[in-house]
Protein backbone atom coordinates (compact mmCIF):
# COMPACT_ATOMS: atom_id res chain seq x y z
CA UNK A 1 0.00 0.00 0.00
CA UNK A 2 0.87 3.64 -0.33
CA UNK A 3 1.21 5.46 3.00
CA UNK A 4 -0.83 8.63 3.16
CA UNK A 5 -2.58 8.29 -0.19
CA UNK A 6 -5.11 6.09 -1.95
CA UNK A 7 -6.37 5.95 -5.51
CA UNK A 8 -8.56 4.09 -7.95
CA UNK A 9 -11.32 4.29 -10.50
CA UNK A 10 -14.51 5.97 -9.38
CA UNK A 11 -18.00 6.54 -10.56
CA UNK A 12 -18.77 7.70 -14.05
CA UNK A 13 -20.65 10.98 -13.88
CA UNK A 14 -23.56 10.13 -16.15
CA UNK A 15 -27.11 8.90 -16.28
CA UNK A 16 -27.31 5.59 -14.33
CA UNK A 17 -28.47 3.79 -17.46
CA UNK A 18 -25.48 5.09 -19.42
CA UNK A 19 -22.73 3.71 -17.13
CA UNK A 20 -20.79 0.84 -18.75
CA UNK A 21 -20.83 -2.57 -17.03
CA UNK A 22 -18.59 -2.63 -13.96
CA UNK A 23 -18.87 1.13 -13.40
CA UNK A 24 -21.02 3.03 -10.95
CA UNK A 25 -22.86 6.30 -11.25
CA UNK A 26 -21.94 9.33 -9.17
CA UNK A 27 -24.72 11.72 -8.29
CA UNK A 28 -23.61 14.93 -6.60
CA UNK A 29 -26.30 16.89 -4.83
CA UNK A 30 -24.24 19.05 -2.48
CA UNK A 31 -20.81 18.70 -0.94
CA UNK A 32 -20.80 22.15 0.67
CA UNK A 33 -20.58 20.98 4.28
CA UNK A 34 -18.55 23.02 6.75
CA UNK A 35 -17.32 19.87 8.51
CA UNK A 36 -15.62 18.41 5.39
CA UNK A 37 -14.67 21.44 3.35
CA UNK A 38 -15.89 23.17 0.24
CA UNK A 39 -15.98 21.64 -3.26
CA UNK A 40 -14.09 23.37 -6.09
CA UNK A 41 -13.46 22.94 -9.78
CA UNK A 42 -9.94 23.71 -10.96
CA UNK A 43 -8.08 23.95 -14.24
CA UNK A 44 -4.28 24.10 -14.49
CA UNK A 45 -1.71 24.07 -17.27
CA UNK A 46 1.26 21.63 -17.29
CA UNK A 47 3.58 21.84 -14.28
CA UNK A 48 5.67 19.81 -11.84
CA UNK A 49 5.91 20.53 -8.11
CA UNK A 50 7.63 18.62 -5.33
CA UNK A 51 5.48 18.82 -2.18
CA UNK A 52 7.42 17.88 0.99
CA UNK A 53 4.22 17.75 3.08
CA UNK A 54 0.81 18.08 1.41
CA UNK A 55 -0.92 21.00 3.19
CA UNK A 56 -4.40 19.45 3.53
CA UNK A 57 -6.52 16.36 2.92
CA UNK A 58 -7.73 16.38 -0.71
CA UNK A 59 -10.03 14.15 -2.72
CA UNK A 60 -10.39 14.89 -6.41
CA UNK A 61 -11.96 13.47 -9.55
CA UNK A 62 -10.04 14.11 -12.77
CA UNK A 63 -12.28 15.53 -15.49
CA UNK A 64 -9.62 16.09 -18.19
CA UNK A 65 -5.90 15.39 -18.55
CA UNK A 66 -3.68 13.18 -16.40
CA UNK A 67 -2.17 13.70 -12.95
CA UNK A 68 1.01 11.77 -12.10
CA UNK A 69 1.99 11.44 -8.43
CA UNK A 70 5.56 10.30 -7.75
CA UNK A 71 6.10 8.99 -4.24
CA UNK A 72 9.35 9.13 -2.21
CA UNK A 73 10.09 5.46 -3.03
CA UNK A 74 10.07 6.33 -6.76
CA UNK A 75 6.75 4.74 -7.69
CA UNK A 76 4.46 6.83 -9.87
CA UNK A 77 0.66 6.57 -9.95
CA UNK A 78 -1.32 8.16 -12.78
CA UNK A 79 -4.96 9.28 -12.77
CA UNK A 80 -6.96 10.20 -15.86
CA UNK A 81 -10.53 11.27 -16.66
CA UNK A 82 -13.11 9.55 -14.47
CA UNK A 83 -10.56 8.43 -11.86
CA UNK A 84 -10.21 9.75 -8.33
CA UNK A 85 -7.41 10.14 -5.85
CA UNK A 86 -7.12 11.08 -2.21
CA UNK A 87 -4.05 12.58 -0.55
CA UNK A 88 -3.72 12.88 3.21
CA UNK A 89 -2.30 15.98 4.84
CA UNK A 90 1.46 15.56 5.37
CA UNK A 91 2.01 13.19 2.41
CA UNK A 92 5.25 13.78 0.49
CA UNK A 93 4.93 13.54 -3.30
CA UNK A 94 5.80 15.16 -6.60
CA UNK A 95 2.73 16.30 -8.55
CA UNK A 96 3.24 16.33 -12.34
CA UNK A 97 0.91 16.93 -15.26
CA UNK A 98 2.01 16.89 -18.90
CA UNK A 99 -1.08 18.62 -20.17
CA UNK A 100 -3.95 20.79 -18.98
CA UNK A 101 -5.86 19.19 -16.13
CA UNK A 102 -9.40 19.92 -15.02
CA UNK A 103 -10.55 18.42 -11.75
CA UNK A 104 -13.34 18.59 -9.20
CA UNK A 105 -12.00 18.48 -5.67
CA UNK A 106 -12.76 18.87 -1.97
CA UNK A 107 -10.14 19.80 0.60
CA UNK A 108 -10.12 19.64 4.37
CA UNK A 109 -7.65 21.62 6.42
CA UNK A 110 -7.18 19.99 9.79
CA UNK A 111 -5.74 22.98 11.64
Q: How would you portray this structure in words?
A:
A hairpin with a 5-residue loop joins strand 5 and strand 6. The protein has strands at residues 5-9, 39-44, 47-51, 57-64, 67-70, 76-79, 83-87, 93-97, 101-108. The two termini are 26 Å apart. Residues 1-19 and 24-34 have low confidence and may be disordered. It is globular and about 30 Å long. The strands form two sheets. The protein has a five-stranded antiparallel sheet, with no helix packed on it. The protein has a four-stranded antiparallel sheet with strand order 3-8-5-6, with no helix packed on it. The protein contains no helices and nine strands. 0% of the residues lie in helices and 45% in strands. The chain is an all-beta fold and 111 residues long.
Summary?
By secondary structure, the protein is an all-beta fold. The protein contains no helices and nine strands. The protein has a five-stranded antiparallel beta sheet, with no helix packed on it.
List the helices and strands and how they pair.
Elements: E1 5-9, E2 39-44, E3 47-51, E4 57-64, E5 67-70, E6 76-79, E7 83-87, E8 93-97, E9 101-108
Antiparallel strand pairs: 1-7, 2-9, 3-8, 4-7, 4-9, 5-6, 5-8
Essential attributes:
111 residues; mainly beta; five-stranded antiparallel beta sheet; four-stranded antiparallel beta sheet; 9 strands; globular; disordered N terminus
Please trace the helix and strand order, writing H or E for each element: EEEEEEEEE
User: In angstroms, what is the radius of gyration?
Assistant: 14 Å
Q: In which range does the helix fraction lie?
A: under 10%
Average predicted confidence as pLDDT: 73
Report the biggest beta sheet as strand number plus sense, adding barrel if it closes: 5 strands, antiparallel
Amino acid sequence: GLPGAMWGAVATMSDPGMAPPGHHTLTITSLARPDIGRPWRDEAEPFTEHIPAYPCDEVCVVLEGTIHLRMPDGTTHSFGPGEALAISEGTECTWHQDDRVRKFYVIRERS
